């Protein structure tokens, strides 16, 4: 039973890391789009 709980905890941790990485990647792709369409562009 302890082995199952450890495996489940490791799976949850891995999924959390993957979710965080995908969110950061999406955020990185979204920022240039927002900056380009902004009324006051920071980067020309």
From TrEMBL:
Q: Does the keyword Ligase apply?
A: no
One GO cellular component term noted in the UniProt record for this chain: endomembrane system
Keyword Calcium annotated: no
The subcellular location is: Endomembrane system
Every copy of the DUF202 domain together lies at 5-37
Q: How does it sit in the membrane?
A: Multi-pass membrane protein
Q: Which InterPro entries does the entry mention?
A: DUF202
* Swiss-Prot/TrEMBL keywords: Membrane, Transmembrane, Transmembrane helix
Q: What is this protein called?
A: DUF202 domain-containing protein
Species the sequence originates in? Planktothrix agardhii
């Amino acid at each position: 039973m302890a082995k199952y709980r450890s495996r489940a905890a490791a799976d949850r941790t891995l999924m959390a890391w993957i979710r965080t990485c995908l969110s950061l990647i999406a955020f990185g792709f979204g920022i240039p789009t927002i900056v380009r369409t902004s009324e006051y562009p920071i980067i020309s």
